[in-house]
Amino acid sequence: MQPLHLEVTSVQIPTRRTAEYSVEMEYIGAAVVGAGLAVVGVPAAVAGLGFAAGGIAAGSIGSGLMSAAAIANGGGVAAGSAVAVLQAVGAGGLSAAGTALTGAVGAAAGAAAAAYNG
């Protein structure tokens, strides 16, 4: 009996590189980038407005918003108002739910931008 000799010169590996697959991956990539930018960018933007861990920075946009909110509410800032929420984010960052929501909105915006530009 003679030994069996096999020679493999090339191997074809099936891939799913279709036009639809490429478009799907483009949307997924854009969604991931959008989510990442939103989760990092929102707290940075809030800090840029003057809402910080130590309070609202004097002379900032945040201090102007707080002043307007206090005047509109008879001297105080209403709990749950935009100024109160921004100050909470500035003081402690986004909560887990806030991070999830921000990421989801960023992902949707990224995918929408990819669809619009695609």
From TrEMBL:
Pfam families: Ifi-6-16. It is a multi-pass membrane protein. The chain crosses the membrane at residues 27-53, 65-88, 94-116. Its main location: membrane. Keywords: Membrane, Transmembrane, Transmembrane helix. InterPro entries: IFI6/IFI27-like, IFI6/IFI27-like_sf. One of its GO terms (biological process) is release of cytochrome c from mitochondria. It comes from the Eukaryota. GO terms for cellular component: mitochondrial membrane. It is found in: Membrane. Gene3D superfamilies: 6.10.110.10. PANTHER family: INTERFERON ALPHA-INDUCIBLE PROTEIN 27, INTERFERON, ALPHA-INDUCIBLE PROTEIN 27-LIKE 2. Belongs to the IFI6/IFI27 family. This is Uncharacterized protein.
